[in-house]
Amino acid sequence: MNPIPVTLLTGFLGAGKTTLLNHILRGAHGQKIAVIENEFGPVNIDSALLIHEASEVIEMTNGCLCCTIRGDLDGHLRDLHARRAAGELAFDRLVIETTGLADPTPITQTFFASDALIQAYRLDGVIAVVDALHAPAQLAEHAVVRRQIGFADRVLVSKGDLVDEQALAALSARLARINLAAGQYRLAHGEVDLGLLFDLRGFHLDDSVLAAPAAHPAQLYQPALGASRSAFRAPAPAQSFADDIAALHLHHPGALDMLRISAFMNQLMEQHGDALLRHKGMLAIAGEPRRLIFQGVHKIAGFDYGREWGDEAPRSDIVLIGRSLPEAALRAGFAECVAG
Question: Which domain holds residue 10?
């Protein structure tokens, strides 16, 4: 049985997560989706979709499932998987909606904490919903908002119709400086193309690790990195902000020394692992025809070799998203890893 793909839906209070979730559940995607609501209070999925409640699981008219948890996420994940394997529950993918005050870190780490969960689930992507009207104040006042954005593979901006285009562009630039690897999209009244939410491969160890998403009409910001573009370019902000979460792109148009880059990464984890939210990269290693791909969350990281470079010019790219990272020192350390 293939691992169950998981989407983590995060965002601050009132950003529009539940409205988006109702849109997902009503969508004509032909999939049975299980939803975990990590909330306090009553289940707030659209009551028109609910038909039956058994134990902690609510079945919906379109075959989707919803359950509310207030305790151990690990235990609930194991229970859902066991009941699915036993034929008691039928679903194709899992969506977890977090409380607006939740730090995505412990939820994300849950999926890498045990072999059983690694075999049962595959974390596909983290979606952050951002309230365009209130985001500037929330970003300044609440560290958890900055962490939610820093963790995201996609950022959906709601309530864009309540601000002017200049304010929206300024917010987009600010979000890109926090997370330059996440595409940004307009969320219109809680609705968005469902193709933007699923099959993101956000935690896969393959060539898609730094790939730019396809262009889309709802797009506000598109990250791009490739053979013809040596650096991510976040839009220049209209003003500077003292956001403690920021993204750093390290690039070298060639190969690195394996021993040096290994020492650099080990030191990065040891000294700054607690401050790192996400780190990912694709590296060219001297004497190795294949590209080395890695993904990580805090001090948890996975490495694997991908396909050979072939006719493509080898290059090395690392994207770090973290809190108050020492940019100058990290750039200098990375430069010392160049094969010579």
Answer: 4-221
